Amino acid sequence: MTLQSTDATFSTHSPATGAEFARYPISGPTEVATAVAAARSAALWWSARTSRQRTATLLAWNRLIVSRIDEAAALIVAEGGKPESDARLEITLAVDHLAWAAKNAGRYLAPSRRSPGLLMMNMSATVEHAPLGVVGVIGPWNYPIFTPMGSIAYALAAGNAVVFKPSQYTPGIGVWLANTLREIVPEHALLQTITGEAMTGEELCKSTVDKIAFTGSTRTAKKVAATCAESLKPLIAECGGKDAVIIAADANVKDAAENTLWAAMSNAGQTCIAAERVYVHEKVADEFIRLITAQAKSVKAGTSYGAATMPSQIGIIASHIDDALNKGGVALVGGRESVQAPFVSPVILSEVPEDSTAVTEETFGPTLVINKVKSMEEAIAKSNALRYGLGASVWSKRHGSEIASQLHAGMVSVNSVLAFAAVPSVPFGGVGDSGYGRIHGPEGLREFTYARSVIKPRFKSPIQFTTFRRTKKTDNIIAGLIKILFGR
Ligand code: NAD
Predict the structure, then answer these.
(1) How many Cβ atoms sit within 10 Å of the Cβ of residue 96?
(2) Chain centroid offset of residue 444 CA
(3) What's the whole-model pTM score?
(4) Which of 220, 223, 320, 426 best tests ligand 1's pocket when mutated (most atoms within 8 Å of CB)?
(5) Where's the Aldehyde dehydrogenase domain (predicted)?
């Protein structure tokens, strides 16, 4: 096979003005293969380090990121268009995850002893968590440091090297991340960033990396899964969502309104776990709607949040608003006129039929559907009706956990919003069209390892059955044992 190189480049633009910001190379098969080969040798060195040495390296990297937070925030603002304080909050969450992964990998990936069972009681049984080798991370643009860090930090902490393909909308912060780790470990390519568009991501999936950690849309995840299937490459798929907020009759409605508004509108609604639909009990619905619509008046596109990062999303947002209104929905705040590319002002819709695309599909804009329900059973059934199952939020003083446990979702915040993303010790991920596999927490660390079972004898067993010299007497002892152990 001849590997092809590419001299092509692509440019990034300011979402608000469209002005070109920077140009980056489009990595082709040659560049991807070269990066993976360098990562392979780095992985050999890194996996042979003790867990304490890895912790020290990753914490040094974390300190460097913190000391350069201004630089990183400026890049995120320029490429993605979000307000600077949002960029800083995002970096804060990313370094919190990196620190947690660095400090906890040793503990959660330590070999564990298992009971060998009565039949094999002469053996000792141990499970080790071995690094996979090289992990390919493919990232989206909406949280260009926080989201990939959920894979990068955990993969590195587990002893792997990483090749990262950031979104073509936000490559700069990805390149910056790899460069900063290179300052800490100049002699080994622990983290490399390859830039490019879909084709570069596809090449990474076709390469010899040992696993792909993908974050992006459900549509792309299916293509990624198909490519990975050709080489039986394992995949974590962190995809889109249509998160529901359930508000019970006993909820603190004031807190629910304030937090739900932020969960729906912040980052211009471009959050995989954004609040997109609310099911509010009819007893408190009027008060909830009064509070959230009043507060929405002070939320402004251009100051509270930035422009839509991806120009093509504007058409999808407009089509969902149109569909809701055409099917009988009511605009409580804004409406079709709120879409003024590249900005979209807050839109709150109500009485939207459940078959409208505004309810069934990910909008990824600053829009929110609020529908009244007669009971929590109805709210739960409607929340669970979609193929998506990423996050959810439940507001109830007495029944929060009870409602949460009935939701078909990977993560639930009770009397709070989005909180699970900021707790590094809990896994992050979804079910159904929201994907599979987990990042964050001990589960996220283990995703980047494989389990190796090691069994060895502690003493010679009187019953030898892994030999052709097995006797009739041994067979009788085994038959008797089975009856005693399982037959009663
Ligand atoms: P996207 O699917 O368009 O792109 C994601 C990445 O995949 C990009 O880097 C892109 O270049 C790459 N890519 C595109 N085609 C590819 C292919 N055929 N093979 C390999 N890689 C390919 O998504 P996006 O627009 O960048 O991000 C927004 C989406 O991400 C939303 O749906 C959002 O909900 C989701 N998201 C999910 C999470 C989560 O953790 N579940 C977090 C953030 C964003």
Answers:
(1) 17
(2) 10
(3) 0.96
(4) 220
(5) 5-454
Q: How much is the pLDDT for 461?
A: 86
Q: Is 187 a catalytic residue?
A: no
- The lowest-confidence range among 116-120, 223-227, 270-274, 441-445 is 116-120
Q: Which atom of ligand 1 is nearest to the CA of 221?
A: 2
pLDDT band at 481 (very low <50, low <70, confident <90, very high): confident
Kindly state the tokens that stand for 28.
Answer: 């082709």
Report angle CA 233, 310, 279 to the nearest 5 degrees: 85
**Average of per-residue pLDDT across 177-188:** 98
Of 238, 276, 361, 362, the catalytic one is 238
Burial class (CB in 10 A: 0-12, 13-18, 19+), 46: buried
- In this prediction, residue 1 carries a pLDDT of 38
Catalytic residue among 272, 276, 361, 362: 272
Neighbours of 419 (CB within 10 A): 16
Establish if 443 belongs to a structural domain: yes
238 labelled catalytic: yes
Tokens read off for 370: 């609020």
Q: Given a cut of 70, is residue 4 above it in pLDDT?
A: no
107 and 187 co-located in one domain: yes
Task: Establish if 329 belongs to a structural domain.
Answer: yes
361, part of any domain: yes
Distance 140 CA to ligand 1 centre (A): 5
Note down the domain range covering 464.
Answer: 457-485
Q: In angstroms, what is the span from residue 142 Cα to ligand 1's centroid? A: 9
The CATH number given to whatever domain includes residue 77 is: 3.40.605.10
Pairing relationship of beta strands 243-247 and 275-281 according to DSSP bridges: parallel
d(CA 206, CA 29): 9
Please say if the pLDDT value at position 340 is more than 50.
yes
